[in-house]
Design goal:
About 20% of the residues lie in helices and about 35% in strands. The protein has about 425 residues and is of the alpha+beta class. The chain has a seven-stranded antiparallel beta sheet with strand order 5-11-8-9-10-7-6, with no helix packed on it. The termini are far apart.
């Protein structure tokens, strides 16, 4: 039966179908982009092991952005430790608790506020004045003025709160605040996010075939769709290299006057690095890498992903499993097969990335926290058919595959580069 369906414009400029059924042709005409393109549906199934970064970013979901320039914000935590600058200075002024008040300078006075407690783990504490002896000395901040030395008292410093042990350049650990029974308020604490920028890059691939070629009988079933898959696979491989090792930049085209943007790779966005000796990996070295990846400023998820070059994978494979550190059988996530390395610090999902070999990083790797990996998409991957014959160019039909996107690492210190020394 002939389909006489027509499109009409509604009250609010919406598109409506009259006198016929809704077909995919009409849907694409009335609402471009409503139907997912076949290329987009298949893309995550095409050689996912070759492009693990791109694969994970697609599977965890992308954020739509309305600009080619992406601004994103990261918030970190206060530093947990600092160093004493010089020594505590006895002011010979007594606090209400009958302890002497000390002036104190640190490498970062701003991280402390009134009522903070500070541990000096390298200085043993003493008993006295309702304080017990302890393995470490604890200080209490009684005054913290901007631009001034901190005023502190020693909680477990013996008689009069006097420190009798050497303490110059000691480590200081910020502890919990201690309020009085009648205290209602406490010094404010706010965190300001830090803005970072990346550029979306327009990635393209084009497949073209003449009408004569299309109509010619072939010995094997090699169709235009097969050519699309090859093109998308190659496109993703090149995108993977840009997403990992790309250099953020923008240039103007001299002739056309338009702008080209280059996305910045996540290798350069990672906020921490750890090196291992050129002589190779040992269990102790790997434990140190795990410690760096899961503790301190890098702490985040208990499970992270290591993308590694072939030589680093070989070095990991040569390690002996122990009770503390061991490699289990493969696990599959996001359509990728990983080897799992467990330690007391956390778990690494390890996968070989041929991109590292191709970009001269076969001895290196990148540990990322998937919780802080975000893909921004200005233009989702789509395939657009172009009839070159109708355009008067040549007797061919073409498909142009396009995506404009970038990857960003929020909380940069949660991601660690692994580099051979």
């Amino acid at each position: 039966m002939e389909n006489n369906a027509t499109l009409t414009t509604g009250f609010a400029d919406g598109q409506h179908i009259t006198d016929g059924p809704l077909t995919t042709t009409l849907a694409n005409e009335a609402a471009p982009g409503l139907l997912r393109n076949e290329v987009d549906e298949r893309v995550t199934k095409l050689k996912p092991m070759s492009t693990p970064v791109d694969q994970i970013s697609r599977m965890i979901g992308a954020r739509k952005c309305k600009s080619m320039i992406v601004d994103y914000y990261s918030v970190d935590s206060k530093l947990p430790t600092t160093k004493l600058r010089g020594s505590l200075v006895n002011t010979e002024i007594e606090h209400a608790s009958d302890r002497v008040i000390y002036n104190m300078n640190t490498n970062n006075n701003g991280m402390f506020a009134v009522s903070d407690t500070i541990l000096m783990p390298d200085i043993p504490g003493e008993s006295g004045q309702d304080a017990e002896a302890a393995d470490a000395t604890m200080l209490y901040v009684v005054e913290a003025e901007v631009g001034q030395m901190l005023k502190v008292i020693v909680i477990n410093g013996g008689a009069g709160g006097i420190l009798s042990k050497p303490h110059s350049n000691a480590t200081l650990v910020r502890m919990g605040r201690a309020a009085g029974e009648l205290d209602v308020l406490t010094p404010q604490f706010e965190a300001l996010p830090r803005k970072t920028t990346n550029y979306c890059q327009i990635f393209k691939a084009q497949v073209e075939q003449s009408h004569v070629m299309r109509q010619t009988a072939k010995e094997v079933g090699w169709s235009f769709l097969d050519q699309e898959e090859v093109a998308v696979t190659d496109m993703r491989m090149c995108m993977e290299k840009s997403f990992v090792f790309g250099c953020k930049a923008r240039i103007m085209q001299g002739v056309r006057g338009d702008e080209v943007m280059f996305t910045g790779g996540i290798w350069n966005q990672a906020g921490a690095s750890v090196t291992y000796p050129s002589s190779g990996l040992t269990n102790a070295t790997l434990t140190e890498i795990m410690k760096t990846a899961f503790t301190g400023a890098a702490s985040g998820s208990g499970k992270k992903v290591l993308f590694a070059g072939s030589e680093l994978i070989a070095a990991l494979s040569n390690l002996d499993a122990t009770r503390v550190l061991n490699a289990n059988d493969k696990v599959t996530r996001w359509g990728i097969d990983f080897n799992e390395i467990n330690s007391k610090f956390g778990t690494l999902l390890v996968v070989y990335s041929e991109v590292f070999d191709q970009c001269s990083h076969k001895h290196d790797g990148l540990i990322i926290d998937p919780e802080y990996l975000t893909k921004y998409v200005h233009q989702p991957m789509k395939a657009e058919k172009i009839d070159m014959k109708r355009a008067g160019t040549r007797n061919t039909e073409a498909v142009v595959i396009t995506e404009a996107s970038c990857l960003v690492l929020r909380n940069p210190l949660a991601h660690v580069r692994v580099i051979r020394a």
